[in-house]
Structures are given as C-alpha cells and as structure tokens.
Design brief:
12 helices, two-stranded antiparallel sheet
C-alpha cells in the first residue's frame, strides 16, 4: 500500500499543479472507441426518504435567478427534490469546477442547468456545456416545441419535436491551424451515433403517436458526412413501416419552418443543424424564454432551456421569462417518475400564460419574473388544496 501511495505522490509532483486535462480529446476517444454500457432496466437513481437528489448548475447570465425561482417553486409546493448546487467559475483557467460538476451528475444521475459561460481564452479550457455533454455521453437533445394559445407568436397550433445529435458533428472540437492563417475544423459523423439517434427519434415518434419523422441534412454538399447520416436514417425507417419518413436539406428546412411549420412532426438532425432549427422554431412560438430541452444518454439526463441562451443583458432585472426553466424542471419531474407533480406544474404554467395572461416583457407583457413565479405557485397550491 505504501509503495502505491509513493508512486501516486511521485506522479502528482511530476504533473504539477498547472496540469490541465485535455477534455476534448479524451472525451472524443471515450465516446467513439469505448462507448459506455447502457443503463440496466430498473437502475435506481439517488433517492433518500422518497426524495430525489438532483445536481443544479446555475450557469451564467439569468441562470442563477431562474434557478432561485425553481428552488422557490419546489420548496413552497413540497416537490420531493433536493438540489445539490454546483457553481462553475466562467473565468477559471482550470477544469476543477467542471470535474466536480460532472462527478455530481454521475452521483445523482439527473441535472438541471443554465447556460454555462466559458470566458477563459486558454486552449486547454473548452466549452463547459459541450464538455458536460461529451463526458456524460448525452448523445441526444430533444426539444418539444408546442405553442400556447394566448401567447403572441408568428404561428399557432405548432407541435414539433426536434431530435438533435448532441456530441459530434461540427461540435467534435477537433480544430487545428495547419499553416498560419488557415484553420481546419473536422466534422465527425459516425454510423454508431447516427444509428442510436435515428432509433431514438423513431421510438419517440412511436411512443407519442407521431406519424412522421423528417431527417434534416446537407448531403447534397457534404456527401460523405451528411450522406452517412441520411443513409442511416433511411435504413432505420425501414424498421418502422407505420411511420412516414422523408428528408429535407437544412436551408430549405429553415424556409419551410418559417412559412409552414405545421408540415413537420418529429425532426431528426446532426448537431449544428439542431442548434439552428431549435432556435428558429422557438422563435416562432414566443422566443427563448418558453421551451425546454432534454439531454439524454444511456446513463444520465440533463434538463435545460431549449435555446441555451445566457441572457446576460437582462440578468438581475427581474424581467427574464422563467417559463423555459420551469418547463425544464417539469420535464425533470416526469423523468424522475413524479408525474403528479409534473402535471401540476405544467397546468399551473398553462393557466398563468393562457388564462391569467401574465406575460413578461419578451412576450410583450408587463409582468415581472417574480410575478409569474408567484402566480404559478398559487395555481399549484390551488390544485393540491394547500392554499
């Protein structure tokens, strides 16, 4: 034992306090060459006395105040969740905060997060948001975009699910400057990740009674990378004869979304296109403050606003729309099996927006963030008979 400890101490001394682990390269190798084993059915999550422990990453901008609203709603309405808050310093030149956050998510299995800023200019410090998704192999991001009846929007009765690849594509973070002034960035598309993403999209459509899946791509130009993605989706569609399948080029897709979003049902696409499409659709139904996003892997789940905006310009003004983060917390409750609490929260949100017409500035309203939150709490207490 003493010999082992001695060797460990020697290694620590050699590495020095400034050693920074290259997360991007390590994560990519793990993801591609040594994929994690799927979670066994019935695997227990962290639960103590009937309550769930959930990692909370406030992030930057409006994140901390939105998380305070989530805590307030959960505390005042007695929802069975305890939050372990982990703050990540955006200016840090090491990955200690990030490593602790990832360890916490692995321990609890579930996380709710705001958008995390990465201000360090060091090449060793990559995007914290991308690192979390890659480290935990959260290969799919799903955003359910559904319009509210009395919320000002460009289109009504929109109901689309966007399924986005979450860990590769242009976000593989494999870049280099081959010669001065010439930067090459590698786009990575793999058959394995495309297959499990396509399977997830079709299974999601089947489970939710959806009739069509549309693959979004640019295979007419990127014939090998997007061509592989499209081929994989076409092959997967043959296993689901009851679900219609078609495909569309990304630039035409954006035009079609703006002009006629009702033609889409479930959409599946690589990483970068998913970022674009999610923001376009959310903009059609009320903006960044409305929809939630779900990140899933075989082991862990992370919930966040659907458009991943930081909102730094309105931080601390009590004007940020809390609905997206509260919708994310409702998704989290559903994932944890607390369906009654999830339904109560979603009902309270709908009543606040559609019946009480309590809208923040981004929806052309005059309500403060705290007004919306208090009204949602009031509705939940009315539903549960605790008011």
């Amino acid at each position: 034992m003493f010999g082992i400890l001695s060797k460990m101490c020697t290694l620590i001394k050699k590495s020095g306090p400034q050693t920074i682990r290259q997360l991007s390269t390590v994560n990519f190798d793990i993801q591609q060459n040594r994929p994690q084993t799927p979670r066994p059915i019935g695997f227990s999550r962290a639960r103590y006395g009937g309550r769930n422990a959930v990692t909370m990453l406030p992030g930057g901008g409006i994140g901390p105040e939105l998380m305070s609203y989530v805590k307030r709603v959960f505390f005042e309405t007695g929802m069975p969740v305890d939050f372990e808050t982990v703050r990540i310093d955006p200016k840090s030149d090491n990955n200690d905060d990030l490593d602790y956050a990832i360890m916490s998510i692995r321990r609890n299995g579930v996380c709710i997060k705001g958008n995390i800023e990465t201000e360090s200019q060091s090449q060793a410090i990559i995007s914290r948001n991308v690192a979390i998704r890659n480290e935990l192999d959260l290969f799919v991001n799903a955003v359910h975009v559904q319009s509210y009846n009395n919320v000002p929007s460009h289109h009504k009765n929109v109901n689309i699910i966007v399924v986005r690849q979450n860990t590769e594509g242009e976000y593989a973070m494999l870049e280099h400057e081959s010669v001065p002034g010439v930067v090459e960035s590698l786009k990575v598309i793999t058959r394995d990740n495309s297959t499990r993403l396509a399977r997830y999209a079709f299974e999601l459509a089947k489970k939710n009674g959806r009739s069509k899946v549309t693959a979004i791509h640019k295979a007419n130009i990127m014939k090998l990378s997007d061509g592989l993605f499209l081929e994989t989706c076409i092959n997967m569609s043959s296993n689901y004869p009851d679900i219609d399948f078609d495909h569309m080029i990304i630039d035409n897709c954006c035009m079609q979304l703006v002009s006629d979003p009702h033609q889409f049902d479930v959409m599946v696409m690589p990483n970068l296109y998913g970022s674009i499409v999610s923001n376009v659709i959310c903009g059609l139904v009320g903006g960044a403050g409305m929809m939630s996003g779900k990140n899933y892997g075989d082991h862990y789940a992370v919930f966040e606003p659907g458009t991943r905006n930081t909102g730094s310009s309105i931080a601390g003004t009590n004007t940020a729309n809390p609905v997206a983060m509260l919708n994310a917390s409702a998704d989290m409750l559903e994932h944890l099996g607390h369906q009654v609490h999830c339904n109560n929260l979603r009902t309270a949100i709908c009543k606040t927006l559609n019946e009480d017409m309590l809208h923040t500035a981004d929806l052309n309203g005059t309500a403060k963030s705290s007004d919306v939150v208090q009204n949602i709490i009031k509705h939940i207490k009315t539903i549960t008979g605790t008011i």
